[in-house]
Amino acid sequence: MSENIANNINETRHRIDIIAQKSDRKLHEITLIAVSKGQPACRIDAALEAGQKVYGENRVQEAQMHWSHRRNLYDNLELHLIGPLQTNKVDLAVDLFDIIQTVDRPKLVDSLIKSFKKKNVSRNCFVQINTGEEDQKAGIWPEDSDGFISYCRSAGLPLTGLMCIPPINEPVAPHFALLKQIGERNNIRLFSMGMSADFEIAVSLGATHVRVGTGIFGRRENL
Ligand SMILES: *Cc1c(COP(=O)(O)O)cnc(C)c1O
Questions:
Q1: Which residue CA neighbors atom 7 of ligand 1 most closely?
Q2: Residue 112's closest CA among 131, 132, 134, 97?
Q3: Could you tell me which residues are beta bridge partners of residue 159?
Q4: Which of 9, 35, 199 to mutate to test the pocket of ligand 1 (most atoms within 8 A of CB)?
Q5: Which atom of ligand 1 is nearest to 35's Cα?
Q6: Structural domain includes residue 109
């Protein structure tokens, strides 16, 4: 299993490299986030042993179980929150994560700023855009994105990127292109888009962060 995971990481990196070269992208611009949600400890340890430094989790509590102690065992880990954040978990999230990718409402912006001030820290944030305008999905709708980005900036949030999760069963390319377009007109340069099934398309369309779970770790066990 641990060999598999090391191989999967290498293979994923290799595929990113190939598509980056084809798309005239620079390799160092693209960060592979290994999404460890729902994965057993032994697989996470195998990824760490393979040298993987950047991880994504979508729930604060599970992330604490996975990462509170491992954070202290490895240098230079970078942890991204890629799932919805409730305001009552903001302090915990700020303690644990380096980057919050799912900022999606003014109340959350205000809570994050308050937490940063209280703890005297800062965390780079991404705004989640609901590119598919799906009612059940988190994220700012495209038409509201410019206004919300302005709100984040005037509130003093360190906003560095955008992320999206396209609807299932739809071609992803238009969603990735839309995210890029919103970023470019707002002077935002980081784009978290693409998962196991579509990270190559995402890289070809400008992803700077791809979020790969099952492609690295295999099928999730405990959900
Ligand atoms: C689970 C998850 C992923 C990883 O999905 P895979 O298909 O396993 O690569 C990526 N992004 C988000 C937001 C997720 O919740």
A1: 196
A2: 97
A3: 125
A4: 35
A5: 4
A6: yes
**Is 223 contained in some domain?**
no
34 Cβ below 6 A of ligand 1: no
Any ligand 1 atom below 6 A from CB of 213: yes
Global pTM value: 0.97
Could you tell me the distance, in angstroms and rounded to a whole number, from the CA of residue 91 to the centre of ligand 1? 24
User: Strand 99-103 and strand 78-81: pairing?
Assistant: parallel
Q: Are 179 and 139 in contact (CB under 8 A)?
A: no
211 touches ligand 1 (CB under 6 Å):
yes
Which residue segment(s) compose the domain that 102 sits in?
2-217
Using an 8 Å Cβ cutoff, are 34 and 9 in contact?
A: yes
Q: What share of the chain is helix, strand, coil (3-state, %, to 5)?
A: 45, 15, 35
pLDDT digits over 9-55, tens only?
999 999 999 999 999 999 899 999 999 999 999 999 999 999 999 99
In a domain, 222, yes or no: no
Kindly give the number of the ligand 1 atom that is closest to the alpha carbon of 212: 9
Which of 43, 193, 195, 223 is the best mutation target for the ligand 1 pocket, counting ligand atoms within 8 Å of the beta carbon and taking the most? 195
Tens of pLDDT, residues 178-190: 999 999 999 999 9
Residue 210 banded pLDDT, cuts 50, 70, 90: very high
Domain count, the chain: 1
Residue 29 lies in a domain: yes
For residue 87, pLDDT beyond 90: yes
Q: What is the CATH number of the domain that holds 15?
A: 3.20.20.10
- Any ligand 1 atom below 6 A from CB of 208: no
